[in-house]
Amino acid sequence: MAAKGHKNLVWGCCSIGLQDQNYMQCTECTKLYHFECLSIPSNEDDPTTSTWLCPQCHGTQKLGNNDNTPVRYNPNITVRKRQALNSPPKASDERPITRDEMQEIIKDIVTQFQKTMRITISDILGTEQKSLKEEIVDMKESMNFMNTKYESITKEQANEKIKRLETENALQSKAKKYGKSNYPCTMTDGIKKSSSPREICDLFAYYFGAVYNSQDNVNSDLNVS
Q1: 42 with 62: CB under 8 angstroms?
Q2: Which Pfam families does this entry report, sorted A to Z (predicted)?
């Protein structure tokens, strides 16, 4: 009996329920049983299949030994044995892994791991080197800026000192030229030599008076010439 034309088939022999295999149907419970699960040759032309009872419905019959279901053996049909319901699984036919094969597997795993680690470490070092290089460039720029600023400040201080010395030298020269050599060369020297506020005030008046008088004399000389 073929499985075509049946829907919602209920199998009583196994849980696989392949519909492309030949089967018989119990006339009592209407469950389906594969010929291979019953361990009997497949013969759809046997008229007794129309009144066949499954082992559960028959009560006293065992699976694969149905005395009330005589079948005619057909030697032209090759019957493949199927795994019965709830039977233990077959042992694996694969041979165990040898020691050499296990070593090769471990070697491949270690090689792949090392390759991955080298790539990861290379990426990390590349990133760190790039960051370190950028920090060094920033530090170099900062040092160059500080050096430039320091040189500028030093140059300004030197120029101010030169101007101050030139001014003091000019005042000394003018004082000597116009007979004012008896006042201190600089206010700083006069203040250091003075001991009272009155003397300091007199020193300021004397100093600036000498400067103004010297400037007037210079202007007079220029006008005369």
Answers
A1: no
A2: PHD (PF00628)
| 142-156 as b/e: b if 16+ CB within 10 A | eeeeeeeeeeeeeee
pLDDT-above-70 percentage for the chain:
51
Assessment of whether the complete model's pTM goes beyond 0.85: no
**Which two tokens mark 24?**
């018989």
Whole-number Å distance between alpha carbons of 197 and 191: 9
Is the CATH number of domain 1-84 3.30.40.10? yes
Q: How many CB atoms lie within 10 A of CB 177?
A: 13
Q: Cα-atom radius of gyration of the chain, to the nearest Å?
A: 61
CA–CA gap between residue 102 and residue 59 (Å, rounded): 54
Q: Which residues on neighbouring strands pair with residue 62, listed in sequence order? A: 65
Q: Where are the domains of the chain?
A: 1-84, 98-177, 178-214
